[in-house]
């Protein structure tokens, strides 16, 4: 099943979404190929980020089709019909496009990426291409929720520096809201509140249809977030 955002569909961003457990582990070429076939996406017009839990973002073109871009956790393109993809199992998949539908992006935002500046780097790349934050529309996909995401003291401190208010304490233990942290940073940098949509489900809670590293550890598969310009 592909989870899509109505706000994206309403403006013609048809090729976007987030896979689930039924679609298979998106690290698998076989599972990934099946999804691409289902969506009618040619393998030659599909590009994914290597994902190293960093904050580097690459601007890619149709020449990068059928490749994995090394050393980055975010992709941005102005090329038509080039599908960008990232894979997650608790981290926040972030999809972006501009109001004129001239550029799209996909970011992988875990706690390391968030505290390292992946969201800011993505917005900076859009600005470099001539698109201000106020023009952007953003979709946040399935990720681990504050209900389940307990973090240690050092991680809590780093997240609090980036996003005050993304933490809550229960019985002396800290729990982080990664989607809330991403939303805070977007708002702080000028993305309108009304321009941010999300699939508000917790990957750790939804054992039947989503993967979770926190719940399954090494056995966890990956879902995929993807987007392309029409």
From TrEMBL:
SUPFAM superfamilies: CNF1/YfiH-like putative cysteine hydrolases. Signal peptide: none annotated. InterPro entries: Cu_polyphenol_OxRdtase, Cu_polyphenol_OxRdtase_sf, Cytotoxic_necrot_fac-like_cat. One of its GO terms (molecular function) is S-methyl-5-thioadenosine phosphorylase activity. CDD domains: YfiH. The keyword Plastid does not apply. Keywords: Hydrolase, Metal-binding, Transferase, Zinc. It catalyses: inosine + phosphate = alpha-D-ribose 1-phosphate + hypoxanthine; adenosine + phosphate = alpha-D-ribose 1-phosphate + adenine; adenosine + H2O + H(+) = inosine + NH4(+); S-methyl-5'-thioadenosine + phosphate = 5-(methylsulfanyl)-alpha-D-ribose 1-phosphate + adenine. Pfam families: Cu-oxidase_4 (PF02578). Transmembrane segments: none annotated. Belongs to the purine nucleoside phosphorylase YfiH/LACC1 family. NCBIfam families: peptidoglycan editing factor PgeF. PANTHER family: PURINE NUCLEOSIDE PHOSPHORYLASE LACC1, UNCHARACTERIZED PROTEIN YFIH. This is Purine nucleoside phosphorylase.
């Amino acid at each position: 099943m592909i989870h899509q955002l109505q706000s994206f569909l309403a403006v013609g961003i048809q090729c976007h979404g987030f896979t689930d457990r039924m679609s298979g582990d998106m690290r698998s070429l076989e599972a990934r190929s099946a999804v691409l076939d289902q969506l009618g996406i040619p393998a030659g017009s599909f590009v994914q980020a290597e994902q190293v839990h960093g904050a580097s973002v690459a601007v890619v073109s149709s020449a990068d089709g059928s490749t994995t871009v090394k050393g980055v956790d975010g992709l941005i393109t102005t090329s038509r019909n080039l599908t960008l993809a990232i894979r997650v199992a608790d981290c926040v998949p972030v999809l972006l496009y501009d109001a004129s539908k001239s550029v799209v992006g996909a970011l992988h935002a875990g706690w390391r990426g968030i505290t390292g500046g992946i969201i800011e780097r993505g917005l900076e790349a859009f600005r470099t291409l001539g698109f201000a934050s106020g023009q952007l529309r953003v979709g946040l996909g399935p990720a681990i929720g504050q209900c389940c995401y307990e973090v240690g003291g050092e991680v809590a401190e780093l997240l609090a520096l980036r996003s005050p208010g993304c933490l809550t304490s229960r019985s002396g233990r800290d729990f982080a809201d990664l989607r809330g942290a991403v939303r805070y940073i977007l708002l702080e940098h000028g993305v309108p509140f009304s321009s941010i949509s999300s699939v508000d489900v917790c990957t750790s809670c939804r054992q039947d249809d989503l993967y979770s590293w926190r719940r399954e550890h090494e056995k966890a598969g990956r879902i995929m977030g993807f987007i392309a310009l029409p």
